Amino acid sequence: MKKIMEYIESSFDGYPQTDSLYKFKQNLISEFTDRANELTHSGLSDSNVITDLIIDEHPDLKKEYDSLIKEEKLKKRKKRNRVLRVVISAMYFLFALLAFLVIGFATGAWGKTWVILVTATLLFISYIIILIVKSLTRRKSMFHPVSRILLAVNVFIYATVAFLILFVVFRLKLAWLAFIFGVLVMMSVDGIYAEKAAERFAIFFHIGYIIPASVMFYIIFISLGLIPAHPGWIMIPASLLIVLAVILARIFINNKDTELEETEDDSEWKEN
């Protein structure tokens, strides 16, 4: 064990003698002792051979220690972030409650001020959903469908907030259009996410959303009086032309990519 002790001490020459390093060394000594006993029980009797085997299993103690410190710092940072989120969340709801009470007592419009609390709650739920989507996106692609559903729910939350503000606070009769806009945004967000997540069939989602999007735009335009209902409905079947154009553009791009790959392969073959 003397050689092992010397190896441990020499590996950390110049390192500050902190409590973390002392604890790490003690764990190493315990681990090496157990390993030596294990090798001895397996039939090895030469102490030099046992020592060399143990040292070979741990060729870079500095790297092991630095990785451990990095992992501990990461854990502490995550713990601080969790605590900070809890504190900020508590302050957020306290501020929302304070705004509800102050505006309510100042204006007496309690029939409208309840929107403040509902909006604050919905926005907080949206924040939680965003955190979940970020976490799922870092994992395997099997989680992408779940993320896409959560993003759609998130957009619906914002549409609901917009509807409440427009209808309850401003008394706008066309406030329900917020949900129509929400559907458009849902399709846009889903298409973008499918593309960013390298979804294999992302192009089919893009194509599939074109006609429903034209219907949503038609409803919005006639509701706002921007176009007449007739012949404005023509924009719906006209969207088929956009679908066709997208399909042809995609085919053209794929053919170009295939030709480029074949040209590169031919060039490599000629060079060889």
Task: Explain this structure.
The chain is mostly helical and 272 residues long. It folds into three domains: 2-59, no CATH class; 77-177; 201-272. Helices cover 84% and strands 0% of the residues. It contains ten helices and no strands. It has helices at residues 2-11, 19-41, 47-57, 61-107, 110-137, 144-169, 177-196, 202-223, 229-232, 235-271. The protein is elongated and about 95 Å long. The protein starts with a helix and ends with a helix.
Number of helices, where a helix is a run of at least 4 consecutive DSSP H or I residues: 10
The number of domains is 3
- Sheet having the most strands: none
How do the helices and strands follow one another from N- to C-terminus?
Answer: HHHHHHHHHH
The unreliable regions are none
Coarse morphology = elongated
Oligomer: single chain
Whole-angstrom Rg: 32 Å
What gap, in angstroms, lies between the N and C termini? 58 Å
| Helix proportion range | over 70%
Beta-sheet strand percentage? under 5%
Count of distinct strands: 0
- The mean pLDDT is 85
Secondary-structure-derived class: mainly alpha
